[in-house]
Amino acid sequence: MSNVTLFSGENIPLEMHKVRMIQKLKLLPIEERKRCIEEAGFNTFLLKNRDVFLDMLTDSGVNAMSENQYAAMMQADDSYAGSETFYRLESVLQDVFGMEYFLPAHQGRACENIISQILVKPGSVALMNYHFTTTKAHITVMGGSVEEIISDEGLKIQSTAPFKGDIDINKLNEAISRLGKDKIAFMRIEAGTNLVGGQPVSMDNMREVSRICRKEGIPLVYDASLLTDNLYFIKIRDEKYKDADIKDITREIASMMDIVYFSGRKLGSARGGGILVSDRELFLKMRELVPLYEGFLTYGGMSVREMEAMAVGIKEAMDMDIVNQTPIFVEALCNELISKGVPVVTPPGGLGCHVDASAFCSHIPQTQYRAGALGASVFISSGVRGMERGTLSEQRNEDGSERLAEMELLRLAIPRRVFTLSQLKYTADRISWLWENRKLIGGLEFVEEPRVLRFFFGRLKPIGNWPELLVKKFREDFGESL
Ligand SMILES: Cc1ncc(COP(=O)(O)O)c(C=O)c1O
């Protein structure tokens, strides 16, 4: 992606790739969109993709692959043990991260399962800048708990801080002296901190956290799923790294960590995952769990075709023209929304544009799932599918009470190389219409509430008849338009 200035003076992000394979899309009339979200229990996860116009649920496993990735899939070596594909992927990862040992796993959460089984004991605490849903679920299942020590700036919706994912070093020191290092299962840094709006972590911060953890003997775990977005921000927001090669930055980050893991559905634009580690003893402990939960050590639950695509994808992820596409598009969508008065997380991060549902739907009580209601109403208004990242995505407290999220966000993910500027413009237009009509949106309540990771397949219903009112107003304003 390059930023190009037009003759008119306007700056536009210009793609440094062309589209050579397409998937046809359908934009259903609003009445049908309403019926679809009703059938999906007002949960965007339960929509059928055939009914979705622009799928901004996630970037996970849905990034566009390159011609080289597809070509590599053809050379996959289908053998249960000792596949050549594994050795190709292993050598790419060793080269990119500079770490010696690689364990394959079927996706990011599988890595979290293995790491948590080895490091979390009942009563122990995992410190982190911020939790991710699956990470927290694996830690709590092992009897541990999560403590978030992100900088205060990270929890402000609007900010000018360049690295909102940074750890608050005072909170880290305080947690170590309060808990004692033996009670701390590990310290986890999440690149491109997902649930606070895809916000990056700075090199200086990681270095300091690493220094403290090494001094105290606390294992330091890096979730590199959103590494590429984070690398982009290090390059453009940290003067010291503006001329650095992103592969060198990656190696420098990895050298500070004890364990690096990733979701290959994000990093590498394929589908899979893996753990990297330098310490042999730790490697051997984790290795035992791979055949138990994933598959033999040379595929770990992944298809060899995906492993080939991932190897190429991770190599390509060291190219700034590829890495910068999502953050530049996120910025473009955020700026378009900001210009129409819609509240979004700032500065724009990676991963997606995050709409502030607390400001958008301040008239809806938090217990009625503002961000979920906003997600359902964005789908009704536009056919665009986003993801709730707020109270619905939280787990209830042990006594059954709601744990209210610190941030109520609707994430509009921008998978890499998938959407066009006109699609972003359409999205911004319909959301700005909804913003003007926001008082029509009402709350949601559960009809079926799963105990674990309820946001994935819980079903809800609207409180009142607000979806009908929304459709009526849309027809008044847009006539016959889709
Ligand atoms: C930061 C982060 N960590 C871990 C995961 C889990 O990865 P997976 O979906 O491959 O299990 C995700 C998935 O979205 C993520 O964003």
Characteristics of this structure?
482 residues, alpha/beta, Aspartate Aminotransferase, domain 1, Aspartate Aminotransferase, domain 2, 2 domains, 7-stranded mixed sheet, 3-stranded antiparallel sheet, binds pyridoxal-5'-phosphate
Domain count: 2
Main sheet properties: 7 strands, mixed
Q: What is the oligomer described by this structure? A: single chain
* CATH homology superfamily of the largest domain: Type I PLP-dependent aspartate aminotransferase-like (Major domain)
Structure characterization notes:
This protein has 482 residues and is of the alpha/beta class. It has two domains: 215 residues, Alpha-Beta Complex (Aspartate Aminotransferase, domain 1); 255 residues, Aspartate Aminotransferase, domain 2 (3-Layer(aba) Sandwich). It has 19 helices and 16 strands. A seven-stranded mixed sheet has the order 4-10-9-8-7-5-6, with helices on both faces.
Task: Summarize the topology.
Blueprint lengths: L1 E4 L5 E4 L15 H10 L14 E2 L11 H7 L10 H14 L3 E5 L2 H12 L5 E4 L4 H9 L3 E4 L20 H11 L4 E7 L12 H14 L3 E4 L3 H11 L8 H10 L3 E5 L9 E5 L2 H8 L1 H5 L10 H13 L3 H4 L1 H15 L12 E5 H4 L9 H13 L1 E2 L1 E3 L19 E5 L7 H16 L7 E5 L5 H4 L1 E4 L3 H13 L4
Parallel strand pairs: 3-12, 5-6, 5-7, 7-8, 8-9
Antiparallel strand pairs: 1-2, 4-10, 9-10, 11-14, 13-14, 15-16
Helix pairs in contact: 1-16, 2-12, 3-12, 4-5, 14-17, 16-17
The site of pyridoxal-5'-phosphate has 14 residues, from helix 4.
